[in-house]
Structures are given as C-alpha cells and as structure tokens.
C-alpha cells in the first residue's frame, strides 16, 4: 500500500493523505514515482485531483504492461480526523504480454558477434509481460554498441511497439542498420615536447584496425600515465571519414611543468622533527627521460635519493631503465653509519599487472 501526504497551499485546500491500495513490488514502486510528479497546486479533494491521481497511476502501470486497470476512489473525511484521506483502490487487471518480436539487423551488425549476442539476450520471450523500459533499453543498447564499436552511420530504420489492448498482446518490430564499421586512421599529435616515434609507440592499435571506444580510452590512459603531459585530449576527426570509413585521431597534449618541488615537515618519536623535499622533473628531453630527487633531514638522520628513468623507444610506458642512487647518514644512540646504494635495473611492466625486472645493485655501509 502506498501512503503519501500531499500538501496543498492554503489558498487551494487542506493537506490530504492519499492511500493507494492493491499494488506491490515493482508496480507499487513505479506508481509511487509517478505520484511524486504531482505538484502542490494540483492537490485537493475535488474531481480534478482524483483525475490527476488516476492519470499518474495509469501511467505507472502502463509502463509495466498493465493497460486496463480499474481505480476506485473514496474520500474519508470524518469529523475529528487530522486530515482527509483519499483512498484509491487499484486492480491492475490482466497484463499485456509479448506475442511476437521481429528484430532485423542490417549492415555490419548482421554478422557482428556482439550484436548477435545482444539480440539473443535482449529479445523478449513470448508470453512475458510487456515492459516499456526493457524495450527502450534494448533500443538504447543497439545505438550504444554502435558508438562503442564505430558504426557511426547506424540508423534505427524502424522501431515500433504495437499493443493490442483488447487482446492483451504486444509486438516488437525493430529494424536496425548499423552501416559499415569505421577503422582507425593515423594518430596526429599536437603540442607535444616528446618525439613523435615515442608517442606512436604508445598507441595500442594499428592503422586499419576496427574502431573501438575501449582502445581510444586506452590511448588516453597511456598518454596520461607517462606523466609527460598536463592534459590529454584524443578525439576522432570525422571531416573526411565519411567516404572511406577511415577515422583519423587528433591527440592534443600540453606538456607538464618541467620542474615540480614539494616540501613537507613532519615529526616522529624516533628522529624528532623532520624536513622533507622532493624535486621532480617529469621530462628532461624529447625522449621522455625523467628525474626525481628527494631529501629528508632530521637531527640524527639525513637521506638523499635520486631516480633517473629512461623509457625505451619500443614501448616507452612499459619498458624502461631505472638508475637509482641513495645516500643515508645516521647518528643515533652513539652509533654512526653511512650507507651508499646504487641500483641499475631493466624493467618490464606486464599487462597482467605484474612487473619483471633485472637488477644490478651496489651497496656500501660504514659503521663507526
């Protein structure tokens, strides 16, 4: 049962409590949403308000396949009640059921496995109750898949939902022509301070590969992950793509600031007050080399670390050399130590998330 307190301005009527009876589950939920659209100015005890409630209830039920409900209103306005109660007793009636579904694919979608799977899973079964939301969602899935896979000339040539109310039957009739699928063209980089060949080796697809929004997003991610750029915007260029279905991409990037300095002050019970500083140079040259230097200073402990990264042309994001050096001086509890460390490594960041590396380490410790 739905119970709703509907307040009207004083100039119109007193507050009215509306109780809708006879519904449950999704029917009740959908009708509640429709009733929430009633404005305060429409609230009252007269026939106009009842007509508005009647309309909202029917709309909520119709969307879920119940086209012929019966709705009976009674007003309880006995003396002593804090507010009148308008009862709406609803019988949803017999639902409209799917009697047939004609879904025709044309163009590349006709043999596209993703589209065939979509139709197989989205086609309604004969006898199920009509749901307008499912019908609209299926049509949206057809066009959404077209955008994700590069069917940019797709057209819904027919989309009809036929309903025979007296027979309680509904029919889907959809013709969808995806057209030809577009392919990736050349990626043009603008605004970059990094060599073109390094950037091209970041592209996760080849010219002539079928367009995919996932591949486009991956290119954005890879360019951003280099830390060479403040901003990355990759967009298709449709100007000359209509005829040959080859879609060039424009990649507009802006270089990251060459120098970034971060400082901080901290405290720990082991070393007391501590000052930290980091100097980052995300790119040193047009090959994307980077340098990071960090220092930490406290009364008993001083540490300096340096990391130099050399991306490899073959795969600048996932294959690189690292040269790391560190110097640490400690004077604590009558013990002095100096530690020096140098590490050279060859790194492979694997697509599985694992990292493979070959390391050569030299370390020297001196205690006094």
Automatic annotation (TrEMBL):
It comes from the Bacteria. Residues 18-92 form the TamA POTRA domain. InterPro entries: BamA/TamA_POTRA, TamA_POTRA_Dom_1. It is found in: Cell outer membrane. Belongs to the TamA family. Interacts with TamB to form the translocation and assembly module (TAM). This is Translocation and assembly module subunit TamA.
């Amino acid at each position: 049962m739905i119970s709703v307190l509907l307040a009207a301005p004083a100039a119109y009527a007193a507050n009215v409590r509306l109780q809708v009876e006879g519904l449950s589950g999704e029917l009740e939920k959908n009708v509640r949403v429709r009733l929430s659209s009633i404005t305060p100015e429409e609230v009252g005890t007269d026939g106009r308000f009842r007509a508005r409630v009647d309309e909202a209830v029917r709309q909520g039920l119709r969307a879920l396949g119940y086209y012929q409900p019966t709705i009976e209103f009674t007003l309880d306005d006995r003396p002593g009640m804090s507010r009148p109660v308008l009862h709406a007793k609803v019988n949803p009636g017999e639902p409209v059921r799917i009697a047939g579904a004609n879904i025709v694919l044309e163009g590349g979608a006709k043999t596209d496995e993703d589209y065939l799977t979509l139709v197989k899973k989205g086609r309604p079964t004969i006898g199920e109750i009509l749901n307008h939301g499912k019908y609209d969602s299926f049509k949206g899935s057809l066009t959404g898949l077209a955008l994700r896979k590069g069917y940019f000339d797709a057209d819904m040539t027919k989309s009809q939902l036929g309903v025979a109310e007296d027979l309680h039957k509904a029919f889907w009739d959809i013709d969808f022509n995806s057209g030809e699928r577009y392919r990736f063209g050349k990626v043009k980089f603008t605004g970059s301070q990094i060599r073109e060949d390094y950037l091209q080796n970041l592209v996760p697809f080849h010219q002539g590969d079928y367009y995919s929004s996932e591949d486009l997003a991956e290119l954005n991610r890879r360019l951003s992950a280099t830390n060479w750029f403040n901003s990355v915007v990759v967009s298709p260029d449709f100007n000359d793509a209509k005829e040959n279905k080859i879609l060039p991409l424009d990649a507009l990037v802006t270089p990251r600031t060459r120098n970034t300095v971060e400082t901080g002050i901290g405290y720990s019970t082991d070393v007391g007050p501590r000052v930290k500083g980091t100097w980052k140079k995300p790119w040193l040259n047009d090959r994307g080399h980077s340098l990071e230097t960090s220092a930490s200073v406290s009364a008993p402990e001083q540490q300096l670390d340096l990391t130099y990264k050399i991306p490899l042309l073959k795969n600048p994001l996932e294959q690189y050399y690292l040269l790391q050096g560190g110097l640490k001086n400690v004077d604590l509890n009558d013990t002095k130590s100096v530690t020096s460390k140098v590490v050279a490594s060859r790194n492979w960041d694997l697509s599985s998330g694992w990292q493979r590396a070959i390391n050569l380490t030299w370390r020297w410790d001196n205690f006094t």
